[in-house]
Design goal:
Layout: H1 2-20, H2 30-56, H3 71-91, H4 100-128, H5 148-164
Length: 169
């Protein structure tokens, strides 16, 4: 539908905006660093939410939108995301995000926005009365379910980046 195309195109375009923050040709790789950290954070959030939510999840996050998502899963995703960002800081693996505080703030933004993207996509599916947005990744809500967190995280991380690292904008 046109809503899906607009939604994916508009929010997804922030990925290009993040990459454009890099100064290619020997310059500062902030855009590519940020996009890699964003991917690590979103995947960590999904994994933490899945495992903790499956193991101990009892309190529904938003039962009417997605009955399997729990507050415990949300907290598990947050802890794993913050842990992943902390490890990147300790390992000194980012040449541009070199403050542990900034990395933890990045992790917090990811932890808040990824579940919102996931819940929004679940709400679209529920309103359209469909189980999955595709059949390529069976049992996981379709291929869009792998990227719904990214779609809401990218705009937030773009604006966080130009706020914390203003010399790149």
């Amino acid at each position: 539908t046109s809503l899906g195309i607009t939604w994916i195109g508009m929010l997804g375009s922030f990925g290009a905006g993040i990459v454009a923050l890099s100064n290619f040709g020997g310059g500062n790789p902030i855009g590519t660093d940020t996009l890699c950290l964003l991917a690590i954070g979103v995947v960590a959030n999904d994994i933490g939410a899945l495992f903790v939510g499956s193991a101990v999840g009892k309190t529904p996050l938003r039962h009417w939108i997605s009955p399997n998502k729990s507050v415990e899963g949300f907290l598990g995703g947050t802890v794993l995301t913050l842990g992943a960002m902390f490890l990147v800081g300790v390992a000194d693996k980012s040449s541009t995000w070199n403050s542990t505080g900034d990395l933890l703030l990045l992790g917090l933004v990811i932890s808040l926005m990824a579940p919102i993207g996931d819940l929004t996509e679940s709400m679209f599916k529920r309103n359209l009365d469909v189980k999955d947005f595709g059949s390529i990744v069976k049992g996981h809500g379709g291929i869009l379910d792998r990227f719904d967190g990214f779609l809401f995280v990218m705009p937030a991380v773009y604006y966080l980046t130009i706020t914390l690292q203003p010399w790149v904008s």
